[in-house]
Structures are given as C-alpha cells and as structure tokens.
Amino acid sequence: MRRRVTAALAAVLLAMSTVPQSGAMARSAAPPAIDTPPMGWSSRALGCSVADASVRQAATGLAALKAAGYRYVIIDDCWEAGERDSSGRLAADPGRFPDGMKALVDTVHAEGLKFGLNLSAGTKTCAGGGPGSYGHEADDAALVKEWGVDYVKYDYCSIPTADFPGQNSQAIAQKLYPRMREALGDGIAFAMNNEDGNSVPWLWGGQLATTWRTNVVTKPITDSYASMLGIWETAMLRLQYAGPHSYADPDLLQAGLGGMTDTEYRTQVSLWAMAAAPLILQAAPAKAPAAIVANPRVVAVDQDALGRPAAFAHTDGWYHVLSRPLAGGDTAVALYNESDREKTISTTASELKLPAASRYRLEDLWSGAAWSTTGDIAAAVPAHGTVMYRVSTRRDSSAPLPTYEIDPATVLGETRATTVEPGKDNSLLTRVTNTGGTAPVRDVAVSLTVPDGWKAKAVTPSTSERLAPGAAFTTRWTITPPAGAAQRDYPLTGKVTSDRWKGGLDGSAVVHVATAPGSGTSYLSDVPWATMVNHLGPVEKDMSGGNAAAGDGHTLTIGGVRYAKGLGAQAPAEIGYYTAGRCTTVAFSAGIDDEVDAPGAVRGSADFQVWADGELAARTGVLTGDQPPRKVTASVKGARYIRLVATNGGDNAYFDHTDFADAKITCD
Asked: Which of 243, 257, 389, 422 is most buried (CB neighbours < 10 A)?
C-alpha cells in the first residue's frame, strides 16, 4: 500500500490530538438508532439532471433488490429550488419536481423503500445553488420529517467561516453538525459528509452520526480500480473509530458503471462489507449486477449485527488478510490481492486469533462452497481479486480445503503476468494443495483450458492417486499460442477434482503474449511494447509527446537536433519490452523536447532510466530543457524484460516532454 506509511503517521498524529467538545456535541451522546449500515442508491451520477421521473425509475429498480437489503433512495443534491418559499421553507425545484417532495417520498414508501436527500450545513448546497440549512436547522429538520424523509446526507459547503473567528474546520463542523442531528431526532439516518481534509470526522462522528466519510468529499470515488484502491487504503486507517450504529463511509459502490472488471467490482463489495460500510449504489439499480451487489452471504457480513469492522490480520503491501468478528462467534476473512498477478494468499487460525479447535468450517462467500481445515487457510486469488470466507468452529463433513494454482509466480514479489511467445512451446506449472488437511483425498485430476487455437499438453502426470493432508501435487505443462496470436493478455482456466472435491475447484490465471525483438539492431519505435504508462495521452512513436491526443506530436527535437526515430513521452512515463533474455544493449539520446520551449523560457526537467529485470542499468540524472541531448547506453544482457523510464525532475510534471530519441535495441 503505497501511501500507508505517510497516512498511518498522519492518523497517529490525529489520534493523539484532543477532540474539542462543544456543548452541542456533549448533548448528542449517540448516533440515531439505525442498527446496520444503510443500503440503497444515490443519484450522484445524475448530477443536476436528477428529476422526479428518474428518481421514481430508480425506486422501481431498487425494489428488485429490496430483499437483499437495499432500501434507501437518496437524492444527492440539485433537488432544491433556488430560493426558499414565501414562508421561508425549502422547496423542490418546480421544473424537475413538479409534484414536490412529499408526493415523491410517498411514492418511494409505497414501494416498501426509504427516502433520503441531502441538506447543507452552510448557506448554499454543494451543487445546484439551493439554499443551505445554516441558521434554519430546526425549520429544515421539521420540514423533512413532515415529508417523511428517512435519511439525511448533511454536506459541508458554503460554510460562513467569518461567523466563527479563530476556529478551524473541525471546530466549526463540531458546532454545525450536532444542530441538525438534534433537530432531526433519532428516527432519521444521519450521514455526515464533511471530510474536507481538516474536519477529521472519524474522531468524533461516532458520537452523533449514522455514517461519516473517510475520503475527501471533493475527491469522490471514480469508476476505476486505482480510485477504489486509494479510497479503501485510506478507510482502513480509520475503521478503528467505527462501530455499532456509526459506520465508516468510504463512498459509493461502482458496480454497474462499467469502468472496472467484475473481479474488481466483487473486490469493492467484499472490502466494503468487511468494513461494515454503507452499500450505496451509484449506478442505476437496474444496471447494478445483482450477483455482485446482492450476494446474500456477502451482504450478511456487511449487515452483521455485531457491527464491528475488519482489521488487518496480515498485510505486506500487495497481499492482504482481513479479519472481522461476527455475531454468534463466526469470523469473516478476506484474502485480497492488490497486485496485477494471481497470488496464493495464506493465513492460519492462530494468525486470525480464532478460538482453539481441531477443525474449522469455511464457507466461500462468493461461490457458496463449504470446506474444512485444521487451521490453514489459503486461496489462489486472481489479480485485483478477493476471496471471502466465513469461518466457524462448527463441525461437519465438509471436504478439506483445496488450493489450486495456475502458473504460480516463481519469483518472490512478481506482479507481472507470465509472458509467452506465439508459435513456441512455453512451460508453466499447475499446483494443487490439500490445504485443509482434515483428510487425505484420492483420485486427484487436474485440467488446464487454453484459448481457442492454442495447444496445452501435460508434460508430467496430471492425476494423482492420493494427496495427503498438507501435501501438494504439481504438473508441468507446455502451452503453445498460435504463431499469429496478437500481443495482449489471455486467460487460462482449469479445474481440480477428487473423490472429496466432486464439484471441483476452478482456477484461473492470465498470460501475456509478446514477441521479443529479432536478432540484430532494431528501433524501439518499431518494436511492440509490452506495457506503457504515460502522464498525459499515449507515448508517441517517431514523434514528440505532444498533448493528450494520440498522434498530435511533432518531429523529435532536443536542443535543436532533430530525430526521425524514437519515442516521445511525458514524465512520469514507463515503456516496457519483453526481451526473452536474448538482447544485449539499449541505446538512445535523452532530453526534453524543444516543443515546450517559449520565448525567454526553457522549460521541463526529467530523469531518464533503463531497468533490466528490476535492476537499474543506466540513469542520466536530472536533465533540463536547456541541456543538449544526453547519449545513454545500457547493458541489458540476459534480461527478460526491460523498461525505459522517465521521472519528473523533482518539481512537477509541467512541460516534462521526454524524448528517447533514436532509441535502439540490439539482440542476439
């Protein structure tokens, strides 16, 4: 977890501070009596296009998920008219909500659902320009109760800080939030939405709120794995302050929006469930995949009556084991693989601090399969994936837990998919382990399935008569992609069965097809790269980086020297190539492209590097836009992968248009 050290230190420092208590805070001794984290839908994705019809449509869609626990239909801003009415009361926008809020609330209630909306603690709402509740807390609370509102998301926008001289954001928030909380009373869920980077709601939100945000509200979650990961990492630092009736809110579920894979969406739901977090959909309910957002076994963990969030049992930065105690004595365990390659993640009953027992029952919450173990717990977890178990000491006849690995990493910490070459036999392993160890298994059979047009052959036996407790069985395979296979990732799947594993256990992995450069010397711009990361837009071939659009660069030019061939990037950038251990030398001229220069100003700075299988092979140090091209020659002999890297010069990424001019590679 890349930001853990810094963030953890900040959390420790915050925890050491004294939380000031206003009189209002002292009177709000507890959050509303809401027994489990709210589940529902938010209109955030609709923005200020939200209207009566779209909310009714969402309610109809959410009704299909009601049995799973999804109940709250929440309008997230832009519902208000621009001004209060003649009586000083809030009013709905007459164009988009012509029937008013009361009629809409009644419609939602008629579906057996609950209704939520936002208010603002300041003078204006965050979006739409509607009036805030500052100075009107009692009146606005009375109005939404009159409408029958069940949930209020209380935003922190347009705060009149001049009314609070000498007070910081936290002190102001601790005065404003209790006012609305007390006015609403105990029957309405109260969601604090005020993490502005300074108000530290996790330190005091548990005293009055149903939920409190863990991520900065001005940087909401986006539908990407990187965004979800960063927000989860931050949330993990703050879960210690959550508990029954007051839950950490790491933002909305993204499943159904389309920016992540199903594996990544399952991971978000898993991690949110382990955190006892609200499960609020951002996608239209009809588009949210029920198999992911409404899995009853996973939702049951989120909604567990004990209300205690998970904590790390073990983590090393890429691979995480989380443990959450559940009502009745069971324990939820999540094995999360943050990395880009399948990885077997393991733990033990001792590490999880489970009650002493000779045998444990494990239920895989995503598949529903039941297993047993004497104490060892493991799973081959796909890249960006999460496996969840419910562990109990209840004894039954479940088969011993198997672990089935396809192409396990042979190098510690390897996070890149194995590369295979088209038209050639490539070797890989499968391994099945009797991890549970509660009994031997017999008649073990392992299969491997490759994409259409590929060939797979077991070089060593793929069946075993007996697998003792704790023992592993390995099969070596050759897989052969067709000669014309495109350079990209391809899935591999497989299954292991035995006398005890009659339904079988599925496995998966990803391999990357790539071709190493041919013998002799080649321009790298003529060689397909295996990976490419660029600060703005794509890396360009035989032209400068230009701006964000593809193909918008110019002739590569460094210090007035023009180059017909090379790579144009914008730092930070990284271009990776598969070399299969057959290449010897990489050479290029490094420098900042002249396209960023302006009259009277020479701009840009970057550090150019060459990496060979994780080892630094060459480095220029920081080059600036006023320096001539720097010749770089790096030995990459024996490396299977090389990377050309440009980092910014320690200032920022502005104008860091980096050229790997005349870049060539020499191979045997």
From this structure: 389
Tell me what the pLDDT averaged over the chain comes to: 93
pTM of the model: 0.88
Give tens-digit pLDDT for 229-258.
Answer: 999 999 999 999 999 999 999 999 999 999
- Fold match flag (313-398 vs 404-513): yes
Nearest alpha-carbon partner for 507 in 447, 440, 419: 447
d(CA 642, CA 452): 30
Domain 313-398, CATH 2.60.40.1180 — does that match?
yes
Give me 623's structure tokens: 């080059």
Distance (Å) of CA 530 to CA 256, 273, 336, 515:
29, 36, 26, 9
CATH code for residues 404-513: 2.60.40.10
Nearest to 586 by CA among 562, 608, 561: 608
Architecture of domain 520-667: Sandwich (2.60)
The CATH class of 39-304 is alpha beta
Helical (H) or strand (E) element with 574:
strand 573-578
Distance CA 206, CA 243 (A): 8
Cα separation of the two ends of the chain:
39
pLDDT tens readout for residues 153-192: 999 999 999 999 999 999 999 999 999 999 999 999 999 9
Burial class of residue 273, CB neighbours in 10 A (0-12, 13-18, 19+): buried
DSSP SS3 for 277: coil
Helices and strands in the chain, H and E counts: 10, 38
For residue 10, the model assigns a pLDDT of 37
